[in-house]
Design a protein that fits this description.
By secondary structure, this protein is an alpha/beta fold. The protein has two domains: about 220 residues, Alpha-Beta Barrel (TIM Barrel); about 50 residues, Alpha-Beta Plaits (2-Layer Sandwich). Helix content is about 35%, strand content about 20%. The strands form two sheets. An eight-stranded mixed β-sheet has the order 1-2-5-6-7-8-9-10. The two termini are about 20 Å apart. The mean pLDDT is about 95.
C-alpha cells in the first residue's frame, strides 16, 4: 500500500512503515480501506482533479475522468503518470520484496541515530506470510529493529518465525464480546484472544503492546475496557496497553476508491473520556503505553 519513512508513532525512534495489503477483518471504522484486498488499485482524488482529461486520453480501458467505469480498471498506472495534479494515485501496487528492502535501507542512518527501525503494518502484514517472513528475516539479519502492527487474526504457527524476530508487537483488541466483535469487524474475537495469549510462548520474547482503538458508540464502555485490560493482564502480565481514540481521517480514501463512507454513527471520545478509560484499564494491572 505504502512505504512511509520518518514515522515516529509506530515504535521507538524514527521508523519506516511498510503497509501491506490484505486483511481478514472488515472493521466498520477502518481508515485504510484500500488495504482490504491484495490487488493493485488506482484511486481518484476528486478534490485535486482539474478535469484536464489527460488520464482519460491514455487509459487503455477507455475509463473517463470521473472513473465511473472503475470496475474496468486494470490498474496499469498510465493515468497516474500523466496526471499533473496527482489526482490519480496508486493506492495499492505490486512491489518486489528485494525492492522493498532496498527502499527501507536508504534510511538506515536515521534508524541508527534514533534507535528506530522498520514497522510492518497494513492492511494486515500477516496476510502475506511468505513476504513477511522473507523481508523480516533479511532486515533482522541486517541488524535492524523490526516491529509489527497486527489485527491479531492469523495462523499463529504459520507466522511464528516472523513473530520471533520482532522487537515489538502491537496487537489490536477491538472488543471482548464475540458477538459485538463479529457485528463490527466481520469475524469473531476467538482467534485474536487466543493469539494474544500465545504471544507469551514465543522463545524470543518481544515487547508486547495490546492496542484498543476506542470507537465511540462501539467499545468505549468502561465495562468493555476493564474486561479487555483484565484479560490482557491475566494472559500477558508483562504486556502494556495503548488506547487510541477513533478518527475519521480515512474518509478521503473511501472517496478515492469509490467506496461509501458509513462511519457517521461513530464518534471520537474527548480527552477527558480517554483519560478516564486509560485509568480504567490501568486499574486492572497493565501499564499504559503512549506512542502518539
Amino acid at each position: 500500500m505504502q512505504i512511509q519513512p520518518f514515522s515516529v508513532n509506530d515504535g521507538e525512534g524514527i521508523r519506516t512503515n511498510i503497509f501491506m495489503a490484505g486483511c481478514p477483518l472488515r472493521c466498520r471504522w477502518c481508515s485504510n480501506p484500500e488495504g482490504f484486498e491484495q490487488r493493485e488499485l488506482i484511486g481518484w482524488h476528486r478534490r485535486r482533479c482539474i478535469g484536464c482529461g489527460a488520464c482519460a486520453a491514455v487509459c487503455p480501458q477507455g475509463i473517463g475522468i470521473d472513473m465511473e467505469e472503475r470496475a474496468e480498471c486494470i490498474a496499469c498506472g498510465a493515468c497516474v503518470k500523466v496526471c499533473p495534479e496527482e489526482a490519480r494515485a496508486n493506492m495499492v501496487a505490486l512491489m518486489d520484496a528485494d525492492d522493498v528492502i532496498r527502499e527501507v535501507m536508504k534510511h538506515r542512518l536515521f534508524y541508527s541515530y534514533s534507535g528506530g527501525g522498520v514497522t510492518f503494518s497494513g492492511g494486515e502484514a500477516t496476510s502475506q506470510p511468505e513476504f513477511l517472513d522473507y523481508v523480516s528475516r533479511e532486515l533482522y539479519d541486517s541488524g535492524l529493529s523490526i516491529d509489527l502492527e497486527s489485527c491479531g487474526y492469523f495462523d499463529f504457527d504459520l507466522v511464528r518465525p516472523s513473530l520471533e524476530r520482532m522487537d515489538l508487537i502491537f496487537m489490536d483488541l477491538k472488543h471482548m464480546d464475540p458477538e459485538v466483535h463479529m457485528q463490527y469487524t466481520g469475524v469473531s474475537n476467538e482467534r485474536i484472544l487466543e493469539n494474544i495469549a500465545r504471544l507469551g510462548i514465543l522463545e524470543q520474547t518481544p515487547e508486547i503492546v495490546i492496542r484498543i482503538p476506542v470507537i465511540g458508540g462501539v467499545n468505549n464502555s468502561e465495562e468493555n475496557i476493564a474486561a479487555s485490560a483484565a484479560y490482557v493482564h491475566d494472559v500477558l502480565p508483562a504486556a502494556r496497553m495503548e488506547l487510541l481514540p477513533y478518527h475519521s481521517l480515512g474518509r478521503i480514501k473511501y472517496e478515492a476508491i469509490g467506496m461509501p463512507f458509513t462511519q457517521d454513527g461513530f464518534y471520537t471520545p474527548d480527552k477527558e473520556e480517554m483519560k478516564k478509560l486509560r485509568a480504567v484499564a490501568a486499574a486492572q494491572g497493565p501499564e499504559i503505553a503512549d506512542y502518539r
